[in-house]
Amino acid sequence: MPPRLELSGINKAYPGVIANDNISFSVQPGEIHAVLGENGAGKSTLMKIIYGAISADSGEIRCDGKLIKEHGPAVSRGLGIEMVYQHFALFESISVVENIALSMPDRMNLPALSAEVRTISKKYGLPIDPNALVLSLSMGERQRVEIVRCLLRNPKLLILDEPTSVLTPQAVQILFETLRQLAQEGCSILYISHKLDEVRTLCHTATVLRGGHVTGRVDPSAASASKLARLMVGHELEEVSRPATQKSKKPLFEVRELRLAAANAMDTALQNLNMEVFGGEIVGIAGVAGNGQNELAAAMSGETVNSDPDAILLESRPVAHLDAGQRRDLGFGFIPEERLGRGAIPPYPLSENALLTAHRQGMTTLGFTKRHRAKDFAAQVIRRFRVKANGPDSIASGLSGGNLQKFIVGREIHLSPKVLLVSQPTWGVDVGAAAYIRQTLIDLSRSGKAVIVISEEVEELFEVCDRLYVMSDGKLSQSIDRKTANIEDIGLLMTSGAEYDYRETNIA
Amino acid sequence: MLRIEALPEPSRTMALAAPLIATGITILISSLFFLSLGFNPIDTLHGFFVQPLMSLNGLSEWLLKASPLIIIACGLAIGFRANVWNIGAEGQLILGAIAATGIGLFAPWQDSVFLLPSMIAGAIMAGMAWAAVPAFLRSRMNTNEILVTLMLTYVATLFLSYLVHGPWRDPAGFNFPQTALLPYKATFSVFDHSYRLNSSIFFAIAAVIITWFFLERSFLGFRMSVGGVAPNAARYAGFRSSTAIWVGLLAGGAAAGLAGVGEVAGPLGQLSAHISPGYGFAAIIVAFVGRLHAVGIVLGGLLLSLLYLGGETVQLQYGLPSAIANIFQGLLLFFLLGGNFLINYRIRRIR
Question: What is the assigned CATH class of domain A5-233?
């Protein structure tokens, strides 16, 4: 039997970078094949070439032994190749089934399609309400919609780009079950990831990419994690070290009885939240997406202003009525989970993205910007945090996700805030960069600053945090000491939230 | 098959080449069009682009008409960068013209050298006041400034009409809907009495310089642009949207008011029911043809002004119907604005 997919000599260059350099590999029917690599290694480019979303400069793609000549997403779909992007392609203001119908022009009979969505979602353990509005769904649920949309077409090859970056440990397990079931039915799966553990538990074979070319083909379950890491990063990974610390006497940051009504039906109301963070420690907020973390982050950062000044205290000073800029003036820093359009201005160069929050550091005189100062600052961040970019003039949207995140994290840390709030610090960031970002956050806290990390990855929180809170349905748990906690208990506290409150009656 | 691909970074080559390509396509299509209607395309294009500039009077008129367009477009661009859509510059211009005329005719300091400066200040403030209404409503009550600015233009037009038909009508004006002529001290001095171009052109130059510094170098301009490009990033950084709304609308209002005094104290010399041939609306096109950039706006203003003059020339000289002149103007603007697409996207042929 010919391989389901066979790549030979794929090349793709962009101005200034070679994204794919002579890449060849093949995927058998029913095989779960990992493409492992750091951000910027060329994984996403390769997948888009396979899917036909962009065209290779040279090289051949064969599907079931047949050479694909004129490629394109429509050709892929005709061949049974489906792709779940890292950034979902869903319209937020319409329902799940309407989104699915849009990608299937011949299937506009919504009730019939809804029924089918339910069947598929039951069969593969991917609970989803076809009539829910997409904007009301968590990232995990949106991913299910994307997967169900692909499954409805009986794919022969399913491509998943960093699928677990938005999932809880439990949800990852569910996804893996689904993928194994699919593979057993003969569907090939291309699994793009930088997470070694996942690839080792799930995948049959792995192709490792670094800097655009293949550095290894291995059996991931047999290869050691350190060998995979070496192939991927080019050197050994450093363990995150968390030295002992001296907590400040008084908390640097406090949340007191914070209440916030939901702005619309899709938001979560915050109910009497209490939290305190001392200097010298990292405090985590765990929880499944969509349980109020976004609302809490916006309330803490000042993007949402509260009428009661005492709901948030910064160094014992009421700040809840101040906007984000005023809180920054007082030493608060924030790294949001959305990089493009929130943490960074996509079409602007990095120097002007530095200006966005670092303008306080003497980058303006008499209302004019000192552009060389902004450039210097951006150049320092690029150097100190090893951001892969062509200098301060590179356009933010041209950077890979992980590199842009490094830049934003670097910018905020370079501002040396007293309190730093980070939301999803390593969302879609490669191993090397993720470890570096985590270590940087720990180091910042050890220098006496207060660090708050909101993350959906519990392992990450266990790796970096001293204490944890769990957020569920707009409420915060009691403070939990990491030393006495275990992941299962945290998982249970998380699952009392909406995501697992799934009932068949809801979708009837 | 052709496919459209987003470019990773905006193309600098295309930023310069797009207007040339657009002009080329316009010339090609309009030539075929003129031919099919029996007009000589070379003569017609010559009439449009070259003939108006062959005389000193033509040059004077060219700059005279470009000046209000450029001034207003500068003010509007500041708002447009911040996604503040002031499309009521026409009304703000009218208010500026009214205020300037009121001061010029009725102020007690008729003999003072400050008469004209006070008219200019009054016009700017009146334009800003008219723009302050939508700014207040948008920042306080989240009304849509597009609708409010547009509707206030009708209010301004009717108010002007009331004044020139009623209380301000020139008693010695044979019942024409216009005020008395402004006294000599209340008008801009001309460079040469044979031509209408006057010293208000310096305001256009000043507006361009100020706008350039504001948009490209000032921190407030940066904050406003961020608010337009990435509103969430502006909120994240704590840049207030209300500042952007106020500054964006007031800049447009001030510029339009200034253009208003330039008209009444310039070529018109009095207030009449029709003081603007739609400068406030045409300036929106100028702002976008100029890609919301001060230097681009100068080129855009000169182009639109030339199209006005050229349109008149070809009608007079070659008997081209005015509709056809309009179609030509429309074609050129369409391709110019459409050509900007090539800066951010490329079209590829797939084999």
Answer: alpha beta
